[in-house]
Amino acid sequence: MNTNEIEVTLKNMIVERLFLSVDPDEIQSDVSLIDEYGVDSVSLLELVVGLEEAFGIIIEDSDFDVRNFSSVANLRDFVQAHK
Q1: Which of 14, 57, 61, 77 is most exposed by smallest CB count within 10 Å?
Q2: How many whole angstroms separate alpha carbon 33 and alpha carbon 47?
Q3: Where on the phi/psi map is residue 3: left (φ > 0), alpha (ψ -120 to 50), or beta?
């Protein structure tokens, strides 16, 4: 899976799992998910589950750093590092 495919998958997962009323294509990779879309601690846990399911990775407690989840670009880098 290349960088673009990971980002597309992430954007679709974010919209679906967080019930956002935005087109996945409208989410900019470097925009703060927390500031722009109101992602909170509960949403972050939902993203963890989504990442594990969508990419087949296991996220350990030590991996959980809000910076990894702050934007699509950070999520992409996190996924690439764990695949």
Answers
A1: 61
A2: 11
A3: alpha
Parse the chain into domains and list their residue ranges.
3-82
Superfamily of structural domain 3-82: ACP-like (1.10.1200.10)
Q: What is the pLDDT of residues 45-75, one digit of tens each?
A: 999 999 999 999 999 988 888 899 999 999 9
Residue carrying structure tokens 């087949």: 56
Residue 83 has pLDDT above 90, yes or no: no
pTM of the entire predicted model: 0.93
